[in-house]
């Protein structure tokens, strides 16, 4: 049912995510200049780059929180159907298809974006109930198991504002996990945190990687990218400047730009 | 000043106050029903969708409530298709319903603007989170945006409710015996305007006081997530436990 007619294109059928030649303009500025990427089950792909390199925009294009100007995105072999609007942005043709595919792709934001008027538990229960139609008791049971997993079981009746940043981000990760996503996008998940709270979030993410989950991580945490990712991308100026196993990129950067980027961060 | 006259007038004035309260709460209820779709349309990005509620709100904020009341009460009766309509006329010939309809439309316009501001004040990230989880737009609106917006709008809505209480005095101009109308009727008999209006004013103030208290209670009940967490003896301070 999920596999549609154009599934075979680009040999994307067995990939969780296949992105072909994504472009994105903001007005006359071209932020993404053709990025392609394929992620298979269990891939943990770290996306590095200095600010303005387009890495967050790229991630946000994947679930159409941002509309790309050109390119194709396949999720589990199913292409997100789009057409160009008058301004030149690709609009999803079928909102129903988009919401269905979004439900299978998790996203963790820099600013957590928990819903402030709901307790942590209610935040986790909401999407499974309203999107999947899961019975309440089942959703609660699942949410409690996930909160246990991220170490927040005793905080389940707290409101987000009463948690530390690290706790909020762990709750946000648990909220995404509640939908059993086949792919999780992390948009600088630790950039808004106090330094001493970064570790607890990275620990949770490490355990997810160890479970074999497919993840795309935009991050500034170099040590984490090096240790946890299976593949690393370095974006510069809207293009993939360098790509490969993290050890190669970090030990033998081929491009001058990556060398400069690393030396600025590691010294 | 004759206190005896004031006490004598009290039962009749309270009768009038009961009508004022009916006008206030019934039109307040319908006003919210009108305001929610208007506000959602006003907050839309689409110019065509925004235009109709804009015109509506512009009219009801741009003309005096008294003029609107007269338009409905005296104006609509000019049209034969209304006076001959078996459903509309029994309603529109009653000053009570004319007042309710006018007040609802009027307060609805103001509430819509309050709510539009509140909808636009909901942080965009919360909406993105809902979208990213695959929520449909209507679910996002009903479960995330409107509950947050309602809480943001509550203080301003309370203000509007209090303004409407005093605006409802205009009902007395179309023969209704609300608190003000009743006071004027009593004065026509006892010729004691100072005592009677003073008593009416005291009743208005009492109602306002109860409204303010009630609203403050609701605000408190719906803002647990905005206050510092009360540190209970069992669970302690969440920040310290980190």
TrEMBL record, chain A:
Molecular function in Gene Ontology: ABC-type amino acid transporter activity; ATP binding; ATP hydrolysis activity
Membrane topology field: Peripheral membrane protein
Species in which this protein is naturally found: Roseospira navarrensis
Family listed: Belongs to the ABC transporter superfamily.
Keyword Nucleotide-binding: yes
InterPro entries (UniProt xref): AAA+_ATPase, ABC_ATPase_HisP-typ, ABC_transporter-like_ATP-bd, ABC_transporter-like_CS, MetN_ABC_transporter-like, P-loop_NTPase
Positions of the ABC transporter domain: 17-262
Keywords: ATP-binding, Cell membrane, Membrane, Nucleotide-binding, Transport
Keyword Zinc-finger in annotation: no
Subcellular locations according to the entry: Cell membrane
Record's protein name: ATP-binding cassette domain-containing protein
GO CC term (a single one): plasma membrane
A Pfam entry, by short name: ABC_tran
Alphabetized CDD domains for the sequence: ABC_HisP_GlnQ (cd03262)
From TrEMBL, chain B:
ABC transmembrane type-1 domain sequence ranges: 17-215
Keyword presence, Methyltransferase: no
Bilayer topology: Multi-pass membrane protein
Segments traversing the membrane: 20-41, 53-76, 197-218
Alphabetical UniProt keywords: Cell inner membrane, Cell membrane, Membrane, Transmembrane, Transmembrane helix, Transport
Alphabetical list of Pfam families matching this protein: BPD_transp_1
BP-aspect Gene Ontology terms: amino acid transport
GO MF annotation terms: transmembrane transporter activity
Localisation: Cell inner membrane; Cell membrane
Signal peptide start-end: none
Principal location listed in the UniProt entry: membrane
Gene Ontology CC terms, in alphabetical order: ATP-binding cassette (ABC) transporter complex
Keyword field contains Metal-binding: no
Top-level taxonomic group: Bacteria
Annotated InterPro entries: AA_ABC_transptr_permease_3TM, ArtM/GltK/GlnP/TcyL/YhdX-like, MetI-like, MetI-like_sf
Family: Belongs to the binding-protein-dependent transport system permease family. HisMQ subfamily.
Name of the protein this chain belongs to: ABC transporter permease subunit
Organism: Roseospira navarrensis
Taxonomic lineage from the root: Bacteria, Pseudomonadati, Pseudomonadota, Alphaproteobacteria, Rhodospirillales
